[in-house]
Amino acid sequence: MGKKTKPVRPKACAILPDTILGDDIALAAENMEAILRSPSYRLAQEDPSLLDRSELRGVRMLLELQKPELVFQEHAIESTVIVFGGTQIVEKTAAERRLSEARRALAALPGDPLLVREVSRSERLLKRARYYDDAREFARLVSIDNQCEESRKFVVVTGGGPGIMEAANRGAFDVGCQSIGLNIKLPAEQQPNPFITPDLCFQFKYFALRKFHFILRAAAVVLFPGGFGTLDEMFETLTLRQTSRMQPVPIILYGREYWSKVIDFQQLADDGVVADDHLALFSWAETPEDAWRQITAFHDRRRSPPA
Is the pTM higher than 0.70? Predict the structure, then answer.
């Protein structure tokens, strides 16, 4: 038997539409509406479906690079002071409320290991609540003397979230000064805190571009107690200074008792994995006044001509 051959279908464009003379006018009008509705007809910058495509990642990154830069220029922001710190370190009243709720839950289920753990953690966070007040006071000191001129120096910048970040933005807010929030779009959406200057609050998709804007104008970095995010920011900053990939700035670890327990810096040097002189890349502070004094002294030295 011969091999059966499939019938060849005519190409779509070879099938003429069954139209009556004059119908093409109505069809053309309908087609015009479809043209104007089509995503292909949108201006590229007004087409969100285009901008969200994976192939446009480079364009999105360029936009995240350029948008804050233009706004900083418009606001004449020359330099910033970065404040990093944990989201869980909140003001005393909020920490007391958390502890009270944890104790009530434990009283209802005595001996529950998870609730026992929550009480312990809440007690520790209450002890750390002073860092919220210190970050707030530090931002007041930094802001109040440096935003009177047309160009603004030492503008406080945070990640825009809760905890220590909120405290620092709040300190600038207390004295009617500007502060910046570089918020990040996360799977569990993190809303910006309410104390950021509205025109200086940015949402980022890419951590790399967010970090770039933190460092670009930095005149100082102050790290309050925090967790993985704060540690990431600490070591990135120290590495950039260690490798001379960023401008010289004071890097201040606030709260020696906390940081010396979390990281044994001396052990790193003793084991030879960092140079002894790399331990001089950072300093310690215990009060807002001391942290600000270190920053001003650093920049006074750099402005002073050599003897």
Answer: yes
